[in-house]
Amino acid sequence: EIVLTQSPGTLSLSPGERATLSCRASQSVRSDYLAWYQQKPGQAPRLLIYGTSSRATGIPDRFSGSGSGTDFTLTISRLEPEDFAVYYCQQYGRSPPITFGPGTKVDIK
Amino acid sequence: EVQLLESGGGLVQPGGSLRLSCAASGFSFSTYAMTWVRQAPGKGLEWVSAISGSGGSTYHADSVKGRFTISRDSSKNTLYLQLNSLRAEDTAVYYCATGVGTKGSYYFDFWGQGTLVTVSS
Q1: d(CA B35, CA B80)
Q2: Which SS3 state, helix, strand or coil, does residue B61 take?
Q3: Mean pLDDT per 10-residue run, chain A (109 residues)?
């Protein structure tokens, strides 16, 4: 089973700042099958990125994904007020089992 | 518009059973893999089970294997999760989601709003 670790646990930033979120896998993720989700309180998760760097439909271009192997990054170029949320990475390259990271909370500084 | 509506959650005693349903609309149900993902109160996401578009292949996390069963009825555009031998640690919001990919390797592009299962005496 691939274990995903996300850092930092919490990221405190101001609107307009750049956010860089890290996701590290315990083994290489096959074919870079890595996705990112955003979740706001009381809501279901929303798909942001799949295949490491492909944005899902309707996702603004301030969200970008990169990485390969065991190290992946989600970057939000300029934080908007609606971007403060929890972000999860998920690997689906060596599955089942499909695994999620523990999440990074982006909150307002 | 894709819509996924879960139902069937509630309070159940340890050792009890429940069946969750997820009614799907707005897409060709039989062509999509489907999955259940759960989230314990205040915790992160945990993948539970997945089923291929045809229903011929199913996958379960080790934590629920032998206790939970995923199934689908394409005539009703509905996904199910049968939960048996429930434990306190199964308490969570259960989300259904559409899966993109093959052979158990899926990411999830549309999600329902979830149904809460509480296991307690």
Answers
A1: 10
A2: coil
A3: 96 97 95 95 97 97 96 98 97 90 96
